[in-house]
UniProtKB/TrEMBL annotation, chain B:
Function: NDH-1 shuttles electrons from NADH, via FMN and iron-sulfur (Fe-S) centers, to quinones in the respiratory chain. The immediate electron acceptor for the enzyme in this species is believed to be a menaquinone. Couples the redox reaction to proton translocation (for every two electrons transferred, four hydrogen ions are translocated across the cytoplasmic membrane), and thus conserves the redox energy in a proton gradient.
Lineage: Bacteria, Bacillati, Actinomycetota, Actinomycetes, Propionibacteriales
Enzyme Commission number, as recorded: 7.1.1.-
Location(s), subcellular: Cell membrane; Membrane
Family to which the UniProt record says this protein belongs: Belongs to the complex I subunit 4L family.
Subunit structure, interactors included: NDH-1 is composed of 14 different subunits. Subunits NuoA, H, J, K, L, M, N constitute the membrane sector of the complex.
Natural source organism: Nocardioides furvisabuli
Pfam families listed in its UniProt record: Oxidored_q2
Major place of residence: membrane
Record's protein name: NADH-quinone oxidoreductase subunit K
Signal peptide coordinates: none
Cited InterPro entries: NADH_UbQ_OxRdtase_chain4L/K (IPR001133), NUOK/Mnh_C1-like (IPR039428)
Length: 659, 97
């Protein structure tokens, strides 16, 4: 532990933290920045807000063709992002931060929060990823959701998600970021539970929402702390004055932001929701729970670099969380028979890699974003491929019922294979470049963490090969009435595009382009030489990956795979099948103590509070029913009490006057 | 002076005891009048002693109020007697808990 923090501290020295200084008067196409968010938001509004109130044939037409509107807004947003990106490329390196102030959101005597946008190299890459992959997944979903009666609503939710995610990315302050953050949480909830008639989907949606709330508390407390300390949450202002805050505040800020990132990005200890989130339709898993939303935590850490650079404690925490998660997710991926859950474990693990890179400081930020992009391509590709497989297998997700699908679904197989080669880091593919750089940087910063990341790469190769073998190779284990077939073109087209991107994603690294591109955001850093020459490290990583692939071949590929999961398995397998007891831990640490606490409070309320209140009222009631007997209806007794009262008054007067 | 006060006290006490002990509404009413007039006597006596007219004026007020009270009170007693054939105050005891 000591070793770790020392190393991270070293990284923080000699670093120039760039100040966010957006140029508000860029003009030109940049004035249309707001439109990137507004387009999908309009789509969501029309599909969710207006369509339900239509009547007759108009409503039928909207229900029938609403998906085209949803896809069109997303594609339009992508085109605009592309234009913006090209325009940004055309500007000098110093002028690549563009601000747009829309309106004042709310204002009090001491604070003022504007609806401001910030478009910089980091946001530009995210915009392309979200709208690009998002549009492809919209197209795919046209085919995937073809027979769903609620397809219009599905596309409305997807548009809502895209709009919220873009708000998250483009906001120029933490409050606006939080707005998008909650928006994607809502969209995620709605889409995980889209098939709400299934109790498991409804429960998964609720679980994701509740666990995300825990993370959101971290983020909202961080925002409150920023208001208290700096009086503002604008990236520009905070990055300027962050250095003046005391160390304790900075540590707290870093850790609270990390808590938020853990919730959204399914990092240990808030990881339990991601595997259950696979209950949602597969395009949702691909878009939200693989390519974009779950990477918001990485974005948050990279965006808050001006805070993390000042707090080695929080940076160390990021590295620890990331390392644990990347192994945790990888181990889960090894034991799952559900193809989507195996991929979800893999997602968790890959986000662990990104977080790890982000925790390593300016040396790692560009590679975190690089891996985020390549992962966005190949994981979306594989999720959509898995969806295509499920489509052909009557929505069966159990890989033990697959086998030998490469002939039945050639396009799906080939595109999936590209994603597979990318994720395990086959030389030349996109994942090879991004993961290689992360492990290299980790080794240079800290040997122990680097070795664990290397181990993770081996496990990744193992579980992905296992998935590949069980699905596309080995012998047929299909159920009787299943006739696998290739998916329609509208589904295979996005697969092909994403497969191409998975292969070619590495070009972003040509001449260290992405590093230079992100330099205005992430800052420059003195380079630490890794303990070995880079080429040797690359060879070692490739060797570890080869060992993982070979292990999968010997343990899975050569043997007969039973259709039912064997029960007499080792403790490790059982643990991994049970999500490494993540749910059990949550249950024991949070749920059951919480339930006992609430039970105790309920008992106190019933016995203590209710007892006191009801006892008091019963006493008053009893006393008054006794007292009302005095009203007996006899005039003479009233007269007597009148006399007694008068005598009393007289006596009192006498006592006062004479006494 | 003392005689007036003593007479007033005696009259008041008689009235008081009458109100408390008698059942006939008319008699109770007469006793109330007795008490009022006992008070009047005391007022007038004190007015005489102090040499001003405050007590006398008050006595007039009491008489006016008593006259009004008699009108309403007798009317009520008449109505009750007509419906119940009884003028006993103990019989009219329905207005209770």
């Amino acid at each position: 532990m000591n070793l770790l923090s020392q190393s991270v501290l070293r990284a923080a020295e000699g670093t120039e933290i760039p100040v966010v200084a957006p140029d508000a008067g860029a003009g030109g196409v940049f004035d249309l920045l707001w439109l990137v968010i507004a387009l999908p938001l309009l789509g969501a509004f029309l599909l969710l807000g207006v369509a339900p109130f239509l009547k007759g044939s108009l409503k039928e037409a909207v229900d029938k063709h609403g998906h085209l509107l949803g896809t069109a807004t997303s594609v339009a947003s992508f085109v605009l992002s592309l234009v913006l990106f090209v325009s940004l490329l055309g500007r000098g390196e110093e002028e690549r931060q563009i601000g747009q102030q829309l309106w004042t959101w709310f204002e009090t005597a001491t604070i003022s929060v504007g609806m401001d946008l910030l478009y910089d190299p980091l946001a530009a890459l995210f915009l392309l990823l979200i709208t690009g992959v998002g549009s492809l997944i919209h197209v795919y979903a046209i085919g995937y959701m073809e027979h769903d009666p609620r397809r219009r609503r599905f596309f409305g939710y997807l548009n809502l998600f895209v709009a919220a995610m873009l708000t998250l990315i483009l906001s120029a302050n933490f409050v606006g970021l939080f707005l998008g953050w909650e928006g994607v949480g809502l969209a995620s909830y709605l889409l995980i539970g889209f098939w709400q008639h299934k109790p498991s989907a409804a429960a998964a949606a609720k679980k994701a929402f509740v666990i995300n709330r825990v993370g959101d508390i971290g983020l909202s407390l961080a925002i409150a702390l920023m208001f208290a300390t700096f009086g503002t949450t604008d990236f520009a202002a905070v990055s300027e004055v962050a250095g003046e805050a005391d160390q304790g505040t900075l540590n707290a800020l870093g850790l609270l932001l990390l808590l938020g990132a853990c919730g959204k990005s399914a990092q240990v200890p808030l990881q339990a929701w991601l595997l259950d989130a696979m209950e949602g339709p597969t395009p949702v898993s691909a878009l939200i729970h693989a390519a974009t939303m779950v990477t918001a935590g990485v974005y948050l850490v990279v965006r808050s670099n001006f805070i993390y650079e000042l707090t080695p404690v929080a940076q160390t925490a990021v590295v620890v969380v990331a390392t644990v998660t990347l192994l945790w997710g990888a181990i889960l991926g090894c034991a799952k028979d559900d193809i989507k859950k195996a991929l979800a474990g893999s997602t968790m693990s890959q986000i662990g890699y990104m977080m790890l890179a982000a925790g390593l400081g300016p040396a790692g930020y560009p590679y975190a974003i690089f891996h985020l992009l390549t992962h966005g391509f190949f994981k979306a590709n594989m999720f959509l491929g898995a969806g295509s497989v499920m489509h052909g297998m009557n929505d069966d997700v159990d890989m033990r019922h697959y086998g030998a699908l490469r002939k039945a679904m050639p396009v799906t197989f080939l595109t999936f294979a590209m994603g597979y080669l990318a994720i395990i880091g086959f030389p030349g593919f996109s994942g090879f470049w991004s993961k290689d750089r992360i492990i290299e940087t980790a080794l240079a910063e800290n040997l122990f963490v680097g070795l664990l990341a290397l181990l993770g790469a081996g496990i990744t190769a193992f579980y992905m090969t296992r998935l590949m073998l069980m699905t596309f190779f080995t012998e047929k284990r299909w159920a009787k009435d299943v006739h696998p077939h290739e998916s329609p073109k509208v589904m295979t087209f996005p697969l092909i595009v994403l497969a191409a991107l998975s292969v070619l994603g590495g070009v972003l690294l040509l001449g260290d382009w992405i590093k230079k591109w992100l330099e205005p955001v992430t800052g420059t850093v003195e380079h630490h030489e890794p303990p070995l020459p880079a080429i040797v490290i690359t060879l070692i990583i490739t060797a570890v990956v080869a060992i993982g692939v070979a292990a999968a071949w010997f343990l899975v590929g050569r043997r007969e795979i039973p259709r039912e999961a064997p029960q007499d398995v080792s403790f490790a397998t059982r643990a991994a099948r049970a999500d490494l007891y993540g749910d059990a831990i949550n249950d024991a640490v949070v749920v059951r103590p919480g339930a006992s606490l609430v039970g105790g409070l309920a008992t106190f309320d019933r016995v203590g509070v209710d007892g006191a209140v009801e006892g008091g009222s019963a006493a008053v009631g009893g006393l008054s029913s006794t007292l009302r007997r005095v009203q007996n209806g006899f005039v003479r007794s009233y007269a007597l009490s009148l006399l007694a009262g008068a005598l009393l008054v007289v006596l009192a007067l006498l006592a006062v006057n004479l006494g | 002076m003392t005689q007036y006060i003593v007479l007033s006290a005696i009259l008041f006490t008689i009235g008081c005891v009458g109100v408390l002990t008698r059942r006939n509404a008319i008699v109770v009413f007469m006793c109330v009048e007795l008490m009022l007039n006992a008070c009047n006597l005391a007022f007038v006596a004190f007015a005489k002693q102090h040499g001003n007219l405050d007590g006398q004026i008050t006595a007039f007020f009491v008489m006016v109020v008593a006259a009004a009270e008699v009108v309403i009170g007798l009317a009520i007693i008449m109505t009750i007697f007509r419906t119940r054939r009884s003028a006993s105050v103990d019989d009219a005891s329905l207005l209770k808990y």
